[in-house]
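help with this record:
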Amino acid sequence: MTRGPAGSRGRAAGRFAVLLGAAWLAAGCVTAQKAEKARGSRDLGYAYLQEGNLGGAVEELRKSIALNPRDPEAHHRLALAYFARRFYDEAEGSFRAATRLREDFPEAWLNWGSMKLAQERWAEAIPLLEKAALDPTYREPGRAWHNIGHARTEMGDLAGAREAFERVLKVTALFCPSVVGLGRVHEKQGDLREAVRLYRRARQCDEGDLHAVLRLGVALARMGEWGEALPLLNLVADRAPESGAGAEARDFLERAP
């Protein structure tokens, strides 16, 4: 596996899944004692994951799977630990194992799709996210639809992105990230007034959202409303100087009349 930053790629997931399959065949029956030990390691591994102890999480979750390789939740949590460490090939194999053991596992499909977004593999993310979004038992389908909207925006499918964001907002009218996402669609389509309206709405529900501040400042600048745009752009440039948002804010500040 290629270990490193978010842009890294690898192709070992298929081999990893085959090795796991062989382990299942060899494991035989899981006794009650083994199952209890496996649950203990699984829960400890997840606690480590939540604390940020990713090495400890991987170690304990591997122990759990060695004891009970048929537990989809253990594979899912191991996938999350690998994902957090940017070990994308190992995470892929673990997500695949989790969803093979339990197909109706929307949380795993959502997180697998989210990993594809982190890798900027937009087209691969969408069918995984749709598995979560379209699961009638999933209690938070809006999370999946929002991510689908983000992927479609990045792919240039603005009609599909708009549909996805509007699905979220029909259920949760003030889900701020989707309000911003829908504003971004209008901004890309050149409808700056509607974009500004949506960005203002997003700021009302979360004044600290620098992404909404940036997009509002950029849209106002593009409309020539520099008096309102400048303090917004300066705010982003000051608070997030090393980020991509800060760089975009500075770029527009340099264009100010």
